[in-house]
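User: I'm writing a tutorial on reading structure tokens. Could you give me a worked example: one chain, its sequence, then its tokens, then a sentence or two explaining what the tokens reveal?
Assistant: Sure. Here is the example chain.
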Amino acid sequence: MSRLWRWLIPLATVPVLALLAYGFRANPRDTPSPLAGRPAPRFALATLDGAPLALEAHRGKVVVVNFWASWCYPACYEEAPVLERSWRAYRGRGVVVVGVDIQDKPEAAQKFVRDFGLTFPNAQDPTGTVSVDYGVYGVPETFFVDRQGRIRVKHVGAVTDDVFRETVDRLLAEAAKP
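And here are its predicted structure tokens:
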């Protein structure tokens, strides 16, 4: 019996090691969102300034929902200026940028918004419900929602100017078609 146990334990570790090897090799950016093409989960939060923020209020516009945190360095720090620039460039064209701060202290989130001069609405997700509804497993993650309220693209990692422009331009062009 002892001879059997001597081989059984090492053999039992083989599937675990194989699974770990696969996990370390897989790129989370390549994992498609099961929400793509489906209606974006609705949410109603309070902005960091205390104003109401409801996704439903922006139906008919292209909405960029960005999940972030002040402790997310360097990616959230890299994308904050990109999101602000893009918000300023596109808001007159029917595009809304919404920031959802997760797993953060209110003071830290407010400082982040102040430090980057963010003017688009930012709200905290104090219970984590919104991030769970969107399937967020890390920050930053950004969801591009079309005018009909469907998630069209999920972007994992810092959003760049090119990613924002190409995705939003495509969604605006689709909405312009009869």
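What the tokens reveal: The chain has a mean pLDDT of 89. The radius of gyration is 20 Å.
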